[in-house]
Amino acid sequence: MTRPVITAFDWVPDFAKGQVRDLRVRWILEEAGQPYDVHYLSQGAQKAPAHRALQPFGQVPTYQDGDLTLFESGAIVLHVAQRHGVLLPTDPASRARATEWLFAALNTVEPPIMDHAVATLFERDEPWSKPRLPAIEARIAERLGEVAARLGDRPWFDGDFSIGDLMMVAVLRIMEGSDLLAAHPTLTAYVERGTARPAFRRALAAQMAGFTGEPPAGYAEWAAKGEQA
What is the pLDDT of residues 186-217, one digit of tens each? Predict the structure, then answer.
């Protein structure tokens, strides 16, 4: 029986370690007890034709299992959960709600969080970044308030831990250590419960162990420029 193969980076900046989206795929595979192999890419290789044949947007992760190739972390997580029967309720309505929360994490909660990353990290030197921050942070605060209100005092969104919780925890932990997340103790506790799961700890350790590559040319200059800003 073949093992699935995922793609991941062999190097990322320190701020991205533990956050690259192959972590989400590693996590669901660990929850499923499914061994996997990793094809590591150096920075820049993700834009090469060979990888674009698997991932048209030149990103990671991808997932290959026999004749099946998938990209997009949400699609991969959902596929693995369905294939292995993990983190998905058997009741159709409950299964639909778990899937709903997976999409909510990706489509509703993550976009403003990633806007924040763009403004504070990737495009921090652009003249429009600082003026945009107040509006971005207001949107994040609104979304986190809505998520916290729906979660309430429950440990998970709908019964047992599901793929919806896996993805929501993965998204919310991008904001770990921020005042925006700290303003909602129910969400910080929620993230702590999710990341305390043994499968998450194994997935995180595996991702961190894979960062053995070297930064691309020009990275040191870019990083130094940011420190001076």
Answer: 999 999 999 999 999 999 999 999 999 999 88
Q: How many CB atoms lie within 10 A of CB 200?
A: 21
Burial profile 41-62: b = 16 or more Cβ within 10 angstroms, e = fewer: bebebbeeeebeebbeeebbbb
Q: Cis before residue 4, ω within 30 degrees of 0?
A: no
CA–CA distance, 104 with 87 (Å, rounded to integer): 16
Give the pLDDT score at 147. Answer: 98
Flag whether the pTM goes above 0.90: yes
188 in Cβ contact with 182 (< 8 Å): yes
Q: How far apart are CA 19 and CA 151, in angstroms?
A: 23
Q: Residue 201 and residue 205: Cα distance in Å, rounded?
A: 6
Nearest residue to 43 via CA among 219, 220, 208: 219
Q: What is the pLDDT of residues 92-103, one digit of tens each?
A: 999 999 999 999
Cα separation, 77 vs 24, in Å, equals 7
Interatomic CA distance for residues 50 and 45, integer angstroms = 8
Cα–Cα distances (Å) from 7 to 60, 61, 171, in that order, read 6, 5, 20
Listed in sequence order, the DSSP H helices in the chain are 22-32, 49-52, 73-84, 92-104, 110-117, 129-151, 163-172, 179-182, 185-195, 198-209, 219-228
